[in-house]
Amino acid sequence: MITIISEAPENVAAFSATGDVTREDFENFVLPHVQKKVNEYNELNYLLYLDTDLDKFTMGAWLQDAILGLKNLTQWNRAAIVTDKEGVQNFTDIFSVVMPGEFKSFPKGNLYNALYWCKNGNEVEA
Predict the structure, then answer these.
(1) What are the boundaries of each domain within the chain?
(2) For the chain, which has fewer Cβ within 10 Å, the N-terminal or C-terminal residue?
(3) pTM, to two decimals
(4) 78 neighbors 104 (Cβ within 8 angstroms)
């Protein structure tokens, strides 16, 4: 299931993924919310808090995620993936090299820092 993180800064489309994630989750929550942010800010600052295993994403959900990426390719500004899964963190950091905008991974304990980075490109000072 995907839910919108309501505490996110206004210019950030932020979501939490828990349990099973379906195509309907992307159609009903992610795509409309992302489109609203792109229309309002003319860029996409995106955060996904991944609190489920990747095998919980159905094939339809992965296709919707790919469509989201392609549809807003030129509007990507910053994207953060928040997870403790090292493989996903490494993939996110490598993905930043081939996509427009900045992509960065954060551990789960750094959700606030990830939201702050998505908002303005800076991390919270320790």
Answers:
(1) 2-120
(2) C
(3) 0.80
(4) yes
